[in-house]
Amino acid sequence: MNAGPLIPYILVAAGGAVGALSRFLVYRTVDTSFPWATFIVNIIGCTLASFLMFRFGVNMGDSLRTFLFVGIFGAFTTMSTFSIDTVNLLVGGNFTHAFINMILNCVVCIGGALLGRYLAML
Predict the structure, then answer these.
(1) pLDDT tens digit string along 42-64?
(2) Which helix (H) or strand (E) holds 7?
(3) Of 63, 68, 70, 80, whose CB has the highest number of CB atoms within 10 Å?
(4) In a domain, 104, yes or no
(5) What residues make up the domain containing 9?
Protein backbone atom coordinates (compact mmCIF):
# COMPACT_ATOMS: atom_id res chain seq x y z
CA MET A 1 0.00 0.00 0.00
CA ASN A 2 1.28 3.45 -0.91
CA ALA A 3 1.14 5.65 2.21
CA GLY A 4 2.03 8.79 0.21
CA PRO A 5 -1.52 10.19 -0.03
CA LEU A 6 -2.01 9.54 3.71
CA ILE A 7 1.06 11.48 4.83
CA PRO A 8 -0.68 14.88 5.21
CA TYR A 9 -3.40 13.26 7.33
CA ILE A 10 -0.85 11.52 9.50
CA LEU A 11 1.08 14.78 9.94
CA VAL A 12 -2.09 16.66 10.95
CA ALA A 13 -3.07 13.91 13.39
CA ALA A 14 0.41 13.74 14.94
CA GLY A 15 0.70 17.52 15.19
CA GLY A 16 -2.84 17.71 16.54
CA ALA A 17 -1.94 15.26 19.29
CA VAL A 18 1.05 17.40 20.28
CA GLY A 19 -1.00 20.61 20.19
CA ALA A 20 -3.96 19.18 22.10
CA LEU A 21 -1.74 17.66 24.77
CA SER A 22 0.14 20.95 25.12
CA ARG A 23 -3.11 22.85 25.51
CA PHE A 24 -4.34 20.33 28.09
CA LEU A 25 -1.12 20.73 30.10
CA VAL A 26 -1.55 24.51 30.18
CA TYR A 27 -5.14 24.12 31.31
CA ARG A 28 -4.07 21.73 34.07
CA THR A 29 -1.44 24.12 35.46
CA VAL A 30 -3.14 27.52 35.30
CA ASP A 31 -5.52 29.16 37.76
CA THR A 32 -9.14 28.88 36.60
CA SER A 33 -10.62 31.90 38.40
CA PHE A 34 -10.32 33.73 35.06
CA PRO A 35 -9.85 32.14 31.61
CA TRP A 36 -6.08 32.66 31.85
CA ALA A 37 -5.33 29.30 30.24
CA THR A 38 -7.18 30.32 27.08
CA PHE A 39 -5.37 33.64 27.02
CA ILE A 40 -2.01 31.92 27.56
CA VAL A 41 -2.47 29.37 24.78
CA ASN A 42 -3.75 32.11 22.46
CA ILE A 43 -0.84 34.49 23.07
CA ILE A 44 1.78 31.71 22.93
CA GLY A 45 0.19 30.19 19.83
CA CYS A 46 -0.19 33.53 18.05
CA THR A 47 3.36 34.62 18.83
CA LEU A 48 5.04 31.33 17.93
CA ALA A 49 2.95 30.65 14.83
CA SER A 50 3.47 34.17 13.54
CA PHE A 51 7.21 34.05 14.20
CA LEU A 52 7.62 30.68 12.52
CA MET A 53 5.40 31.59 9.57
CA PHE A 54 7.00 34.95 8.84
CA ARG A 55 10.58 33.90 9.62
CA PHE A 56 10.70 30.42 8.08
CA GLY A 57 7.39 29.89 6.26
CA VAL A 58 8.65 30.58 2.76
CA ASN A 59 11.48 28.08 3.14
CA MET A 60 9.40 25.52 5.02
CA GLY A 61 8.33 22.39 3.20
CA ASP A 62 4.65 21.53 2.85
CA SER A 63 4.94 18.59 5.25
CA LEU A 64 6.50 20.65 8.04
CA ARG A 65 4.05 23.50 7.45
CA THR A 66 1.13 21.04 7.64
CA PHE A 67 2.49 19.42 10.81
CA LEU A 68 3.13 22.74 12.56
CA PHE A 69 0.33 25.05 11.48
CA VAL A 70 -2.59 22.74 10.80
CA GLY A 71 -1.62 20.07 13.33
CA ILE A 72 0.12 21.59 16.34
CA PHE A 73 -1.15 25.17 16.23
CA GLY A 74 -4.56 24.09 14.94
CA ALA A 75 -5.07 21.95 18.03
CA PHE A 76 -3.25 24.27 20.43
CA THR A 77 -5.15 27.41 19.43
CA THR A 78 -7.19 28.45 16.41
CA MET A 79 -6.61 32.04 17.47
CA SER A 80 -3.15 31.79 15.90
CA THR A 81 -4.64 31.08 12.47
CA PHE A 82 -7.14 33.91 12.84
CA SER A 83 -4.33 36.27 13.91
CA ILE A 84 -1.98 35.34 11.05
CA ASP A 85 -4.81 35.66 8.51
CA THR A 86 -5.61 39.12 9.87
CA VAL A 87 -1.95 40.20 9.88
CA ASN A 88 -1.60 39.04 6.26
CA LEU A 89 -4.61 41.15 5.32
CA LEU A 90 -3.23 44.18 7.18
CA VAL A 91 0.28 43.83 5.74
CA GLY A 92 -1.25 43.45 2.29
CA GLY A 93 -3.07 46.76 2.78
CA ASN A 94 -6.48 45.11 2.78
CA PHE A 95 -7.75 46.94 5.87
CA THR A 96 -11.42 46.44 5.04
CA HIS A 97 -11.09 42.67 4.87
CA ALA A 98 -8.94 42.66 8.01
CA PHE A 99 -11.64 44.59 9.88
CA ILE A 100 -14.40 42.33 8.52
CA ASN A 101 -12.37 39.27 9.52
CA MET A 102 -11.96 40.62 13.06
CA ILE A 103 -15.66 41.44 13.39
CA LEU A 104 -16.79 38.11 11.99
CA ASN A 105 -14.45 36.05 14.14
CA CYS A 106 -14.87 38.00 17.37
CA VAL A 107 -18.48 39.15 17.32
CA VAL A 108 -20.25 36.63 15.10
CA CYS A 109 -18.50 33.60 16.60
CA ILE A 110 -19.37 34.73 20.12
CA GLY A 111 -22.92 35.18 18.84
CA GLY A 112 -22.77 31.60 17.57
CA ALA A 113 -21.63 30.42 20.98
CA LEU A 114 -24.53 32.30 22.59
CA LEU A 115 -26.94 30.76 20.08
CA GLY A 116 -25.53 27.31 20.80
CA ARG A 117 -26.04 27.85 24.53
CA TYR A 118 -29.56 29.09 23.96
CA LEU A 119 -30.42 26.07 21.78
CA ALA A 120 -28.94 23.71 24.36
CA MET A 121 -31.23 25.18 27.02
CA LEU A 122 -34.44 24.55 25.01
Answers:
(1) 999 999 998 998 899 889 999 99
(2) helix 7-29
(3) 80
(4) no
(5) 4-77
